[in-house]
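We modelled the chain as a single entity of 126 amino acids. Its sequence is:
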Amino acid sequence: QVQLAESGGGLVQAGDSVRLSCAASGRTFSMYTMGWFRQDPGKEREFVAAIRWGGGSAYYADSVKGRFTISRDNAKNTVYLKMNTLKTEGTAVYHCAAPNPYHTGNFYDHNEYDFWGQGTQVTVSS
């Protein structure tokens, strides 16, 4: 079991940068792939980025590639999402999530994730 808590959201202007953090409980954080998803009311939950356990390879949705960076600090049990050049369509609740340890499935699919944070709202104004 792992518990997740996001922070760092808020109201920003288009073009601004924001860094989200997700703190995880437990002593086995390094065994978990960590993902960021976002969801706007009435829309499907959307994959944003993921970082694998082990070597820490990172993967991004095409819509954020080149603007967002996911990283992790295993010593601090924390995963980050640095979002640059934010767009108004980036307005959503951002959730971090983790599948079971040593996950090797499709990390783009939110159904693969077993543990979720409560989310943090990011609102991008024009």
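As a brief sanity check on the tokenised model: The chain has a mean pLDDT of 94. Residues 99 and 112 are 6 Å apart (CA to CA).
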